[in-house]
TrEMBL record, chain A:
Chain segments carrying region Disordered: 1-23
Listed InterPro entries: 4Fe4S_Fe-S-bd, 4Fe4S_Fe_S_CS, FTHF_cligase-like_sf, Helical_ferredxn, LUD_dom, LutB/LldF, NagB/RpiA_transferase-like
Descriptive protein name: Amino acid dehydrogenase
Biased amino acid composition, Basic and acidic residues: 1-15
Keywords assigned by UniProt, alphabetized: 4Fe-4S, Electron transport, Iron, Iron-sulfur, Metal-binding, Repeat, Transport
Segments passing through the bilayer: none
GO molecular function, one term: metal ion binding
TrEMBL record, chain B:
Protein family according to the UniProt entry: Belongs to the LutA/YkgE family.
This protein's name: Lactate utilization protein A
Role of this protein: Is involved in L-lactate degradation and allows cells to grow with lactate as the sole carbon source.
GO annotation, biological process: lactate metabolic process
GO molecular function: oxidoreductase activity
Gene: lutA
Record-annotated Cysteine-rich domain positions: 3-83, 132-215
Organism whose genome encodes this protein: Paenibacillus jilunlii
InterPro entries in the cross-refs: Cys_rich_dom, LutA
Length: 475, 254
């Protein structure tokens, strides 16, 4: 997988999403239940707004001093005998990981969930190098078994699939013979995966946060697969986005609280682990620890007008409340990062050529901004993208002309007054029984689905009423 | 108290009865009304579409139009929320920043003004019927006003309010979003219409005409017999004088 999951046009992708009742049903039920759970988990923490502000401050502070904390992290990891590698590009990142694997002559790899490894196309690179790679997060495993169906959610990658579909994937690909109960499906996957953990030469995990002063990484999981991936194989490679770092355990505690509650409505997930190179005298854990810090465009975002997007802790809460995501699903975004945060960061990482529609796929309802645990002004960032897209003249010439005309019209009462007077007579040409029935593209988009009355007649307008009244009161 | 009316371009173009109702309610509550005639539009359609420079023309016009007003009151949480964005947009602009801040500080959405400035929750309205209320996203999230419409509606005699399921979900209007991404918008408004119909209410009330034209237009297309009313029309529903003056104006969705 790479950042881009679907090369078709945005319209084709959304039509697919809208036409998929299974996906829409799965997504809307998940949204509805997560909303309640998230709210109750947030309330139990006390003043949620204060926690959000704290989360925002921690993220902003860390980003501001990112060079310092990354330096500290590197020193501490090396001091403990681990390795750290700073990859400028996705090719450097996946190339470094491939080299370790080749050098160790490793064949079997287990992986726990990591979005950044998708971004750097690591799976592809490793499989091409001849490795057998197994995703061990249940959702990711389901997708892998379904011929690498792309993830549709950053926390729950297989959210678009219901249990019946999962049962049929397991039956078809793995010879599963049980029913469609989640317990039985999970038990089956667990049996298969347990063996994979025991056989693996290398374990690859993501990283929720690196803890700078400890030289360690923090993993937040529910299935325990992250810990098995990190603990059983002789070599552990962790991959992190360059910005995912906290100064100490104290800040980690705050962010984990925000993350678990926002992501899945839990006070804490089942496993919150802090893992690093084994200390001297420790008999368990991997012999070799590598941390790959991925830039891949992030340093361009750092300090730019989109800096706040780097505050993201990948909780997925913005996806869980987004009414657009609700109806089109994750695949329609054509990126491993869907939803509101995806519409902000995907064009930053992948460019406007492929992703110029994403910032417009929002009604700017700001549900995302409202729910973000680290206060990223997501809908404002979408407007910033729109401004850039307009500045680069990537919108249609007709739209630009319309906006220019409307801009003049809506800034001058003299012009607007004329338009008001003309609106009703002009609309008669395109109306029947007081309703507009045809018109240019923009109007058609509206009236295809909705009734629209004609604009009011000049003599019936609010301004005419005010004028009449003023005249009347003088008499 | 002197109040300048900000009618909004949607009311000017489509629904004069909302403006009239707002004026009549405010006058009944003792306000002295004026209407700075050079006002047009808050600039939101162009701004939200990314046309920053084009939108600034409209914004500057509004700052000048209301320069001498004490209070500016409009029948739209969304348009007033746009006013509240002006200081951010004109930050660092020596000519306009202070004007932007001044406009923000004196601008109120209609229900917000009645409750928070006038300190009134019972305007003496009465309306027989069952209604549900659609919160507009911009009013609740950007303007941050979640309470005042409900405080006022609670006091309307004879009006039975039914809760709306998933009331936090956007109706799919989103200004230019509804015409730029009509297929997605249609799914959103469809779901909203379903939730409205489920309440069994015969009136859908909101404080934003954009949402109401969207949901009302879809309800009408689907043949749902739900009438839409702006909250100003609801709160004006008792005044005998108003009834006379309003004659000839159909409700917003006909």
């Amino acid at each position: 997988m790479s950042l881009q999951t679907d090369k078709r046009e945005f319209n084709e992708r959304t039509t697919d999403g809208i036409g998929n009742p299974f996906m829409r049903n799965a997504v809307s039920s998940a949204q509805d239940s997560l909303k309640t759970r998230r709210l109750s988990a947030a309330t139990t923490l006390g003043d949620w707004e204060q926690w959000r502000t704290l989360g925002q401050q921690i993220r902003q502070h860390t980003l501001k001093h990112l060079d310092y904390y990354l330096g500290q992290l590197a020193d501490n990891i090396e001091k403990k005998g681990g390795h750290i590698y700073f990859a400028k590009t996705k090719e450097e990142a996946s190339g470094y990981i491939r080299d370790i694997i080749v050098q160790k002559n490793a064949k079997k790899i287990v992986k726990s969930k990591s979005m950044v490894t998708e971004e750097i196309e690591m799976n592809h690179v490793l499989m091409e190098a001849g490795c057998e790679l197994t995703e061990t997060d249940l959702g990711e495993y389901i997708l892998q078994m379904d011929d690498w169906d792309p993830p549709s959610h950053i926390v729950a990658p297989a959210l678009h699939k219901d249990r019946t579909q999962i049962q049929s994937v397991f039956t078809e690909k793995l010879g599963y013979t049980g029913d469609e109960s989640p317990e039985n499906l999970a038990r089956f996957a667990r049996t298969v995966l347990r063996q994979k953990f025991l056989e693996a030469d290398v374990g690859i995990t993501g990283c929720n946060f690196a803890v700078a002063n400890l030289g360690a990484i923090n993993l937040v999981t529910n299935e325990g697969n992250g810990d098995l991936t990190a603990a059983i194989p002789k070599t552990h490679i962790a991959v992190m986005g360059m910005e995912r770092i906290v100064p100490t355990l104290e800040e980690m505690e705050v962010l984990d609280n925000l993350l678990c509650r926002s992501a899945v409505g839990q006070k804490l997930t089942s496993y919150i682990s802090v893992i690093g190179p084994s200390a001297a005298g420790e008999t368990d854990g991997p012999e070799d620890f590598h941390l790959v810090v991925v830039d891949n465009g992030r340093s361009e975002i750092l300090g730019s007008e989109f800096n706040e997007a780097l505050q993201c802790i990948r909780c997925g809460a913005c996806l869980n409340v987004c009414p657009v995501y609700r109806h089109i699903g994750g695949h329609a975004y054509g990126s491993i990062y869907p939803g509101p945060i995806g519409a902000v960061i995907t064009p930053l990482l992948g460019g406007y050529d492929d992703y110029k529609e994403l910032p417009f796929a929002s009604s700017l309802c700001a549900a995302c901004t409202d729910v973000c645990p680290v206060k990223i002004p997501l809908h404002e960032q979408l407007i910033l993208h729109r401004q850039n897209i307009v500045k680069e003249k990537r919108t249609g010439a007709a739209e630009r002309l319309q906006m220019k005309t409307a801009g003049r019209l809506l800034a001058s009462q003299a012009l607007f007054g004329k338009a008001l007077r003309l609106a009703n007579p002009a609309s008669r040409l395109i109306s029947r029984h007081g309703r507009i029935v045809r018109g240019p593209q923009l109007v058609r988009g509206w009236i295809n689905a909705r009734d629209l009355s004609q604009p009011v007649r000049q003599q019936d307008s609010f301004r005419a009423w005010l004028d009449k009244r003023k005249g009347g009161s003088g008499q | 108290m002197k109040v300048s009316i900000f009618s909004t371009c949607v009311v000017d173009l489509m629904t004069p009865n909302v403006g009239i109702a707002m004026v009549q309610v405010l006058e009944r509550l003792g306000c002295e009304i004026d209407f700075p005639a050079s006002q047009v539009c808050c600039g939101q359609p162009a701004y939200n579409s990314g046309y920053l420079e084009d939108s600034k023309l409209a914004m500057k016009n509004m700052m000048l139009a209301f320069e001498h007003s004490d209070y500016v009151v409009g029948p739209s949480g969304s348009c007033i929320a746009m006013f509240h964005e002006y200081p951010k947009i004109f930050k660092g602009d020596p000519q306009w920043e202070l004007k932007a801040v001044a406009l923000k500080e004196k601008s109120y959405e209609f229900t917000q003004f009645i409750v928070r400035v006038l300190g009134i929750t019972d305007v003496g309205a009465s309306l027989e019927g069952t209604a549900t209320y659609h919160r507009s996203c911009h009013m609740t999230r950007l303007l941050g006003e979640r309470e005042t419409p409900f405080q006022l509606l609670e006091q309307v005699q004879g009006l039975q309010m039914e809760p709306l399921k998933n009331s936090d979900n956007c109706c799919g209007f989103g200004g230019t979003f509804s015409v730029k991404m009509p297929e997605i918008s249609e799914q959103m408004v469809d779901e909203k219409c379903g939730c409205v119909a489920e309440t069994g209410a015969d009136i859908l009330i909101s404080a934003d005409m954009g949402c109401l034209l969207n949901i009302g237009g879809r309800l009408s297309r689907k043949g749902e017999p739900v009438k839409i009313m702006h909250i100003a029309e609801v709160l004006n529903h008792y005044n005998p004088a108003a009834t006379k003056e309003e004659a000839g104006h159909e409700p917003a969705n006909g």
